[in-house]
Amino acid sequence: MNLYPWLEDYLMAKPGAEQDFKLEWQWQRYMVRGKLFAAVCTPGPEHRPHAGRTMVILKCDPRLAEAFRAEYPDIVPGFYSDKRTWNSVYLDGAVPEQVLRDLCDMSYQLVAAKLPKYVQRELTE
Asked: What are the tens digits of pLDDT across the range 40-56?
């Protein structure tokens, strides 16, 4: 069950957003200029405690990542990613829509900020 039906459109509305499906990982990936800023996946039964729970994986400021995890039980350290700088949000959970939107925005901004300046200018034009 997806309680956030707007999520894909929201991610794809970001300037320069691209998506693909990574077959080996079974991840729907969202990128800007080839750099991952979000991924949606449903880990299999071998990945406890995540098994069967669809999640979106988002980059997060390390200073805020733990604060979000402490406040919302459905935000956990990033699945198959750097636990310090990525969070996973369970899409069957109870994270408020605005918080998830803010996390998506932050993830995109953190990734876009690492792109070359000329690319950042192109994205804002």
From this structure: 998 888 888 888 899 99
